[in-house]
Amino acid sequence: MTDHLRNLNKKRLEELQNNVLKDVAGSLGLIMAYMGDRLGLYTALVEISPVSSKDLAECTGLNERYVREWLSANAAAGYVDYDPLSEKFSLSPEQAVIFAAERHPDCMQGFFQIVVSAYRDEPKVSEAFRTGQGLPWSDHSGCLFCGTERFFRPMYAANLIDAWIPALEGVREKLEAGARVADIGCGHGSSTILMAQAFPKSTIHGFDFHRPSIEHARSRASDAGVAGNTVFEVVAAKEFPGGSYDLVTIFDALHDMGDPVGAAAHVLSSLSDGGTFMVVEPFAGDSLEENLHPLGQIYYSLSTMICTPASKAQEVGLALGAQAGEKRLTEVLREAGFKRIRRVAETPSNIVLEARA
Ligand SMILES: C[S@@+](CC[C@H](N)C(=O)[O-])C[C@H]1O[C@@H](n2cnc3c(N)ncnc32)[C@H](O)[C@@H]1O
User: Fold this and answer.
1) Which of 190, 216, 280, 312 shows its CA 20 to 30 Å from the CA of 149?
2) Which of 139, 164, 186 gets mutated to test ligand 1 (max ligand atoms within 8 A of its CB)?
3) Which CATH number does the domain housing residue 23 bear?
4) Mean pLDDT of the chain
5) Are 148 and 226 within one domain?
């Protein structure tokens, strides 16, 4: 170690220290934000800003001393505003969007839930590093499933019906007329329900091997008034039933599968003549060096904690990772037998591929 430190560059050390310090502050800010969501503090702030810690505590039924410390941490992070003259705290419209605007595409609370689940599950993942075994999706703490739905749903709501489906050749027309759709690895069913709402003449099947997620999806669909044209079933991606689907979709789940090639081959065999496979995956460049930025850091980290162990827990255990990139995904689809593959859309966080026989 002493030898290794001989060439220590003080300036570079200071830069790294500053960066890591920001990360430490961010990791603690995130837990403050998560608690503020669970305890209803941000929604109360939206209602009654500007407010003293005493009044906020009273309105939320929480202990004033804890609330004051939490508010101070939030003010230091820039998550809430503080006016020293009145000693009151408030939430600007921008802060309200990030921390309190449920269903807004820029609300980040679902993201925070996912990160908190990663912290909770760290001992299991560290053990997996030692054994080389996987960690099944079902063995993660519950806030992963809720956070995933909460984080992804607004993005799908903003893009799926108005941008992604219209970008697929001839698919919107089929769905409007009445088509059969399968949504594989549908989780809590946010994409399934969006398609069922937009295309009432079509039947949308949601498949996932995680029973609690399917049960949740079913009740969500019923609340959303689309129980009549949705069918949810607990089944693995390589075994979903039926055939002649006009459209099969996989949202942010292909890379989580142990055998994505096998799953895609099963999709191919279940498509109708002229049917389409739509794959939505995290945005990524094709090489590691293209992904060395904050979004890449986030995806690789979540992939270390969630996606890679989820895939390694299944047969084959290909472990594509959440930053596979278009080139690798295309190879997987080609290996499964798809011939015509193209990128049809992208957002800062997703790429959308269309695959056909
Ligand atoms: C990151 S979540 C995405 C869920 C949902 N598509 C969404 O975007 O909100 C990945 C999902 O894939 C499912 N999954 C992973 N491997 C699977 C497999 N082999 N068969 C069926 N579902 C699978 C998990 O249970 C989980 O619900």
Assistant:
1) 312
2) 186
3) 1.10.10.10
4) 96
5) yes
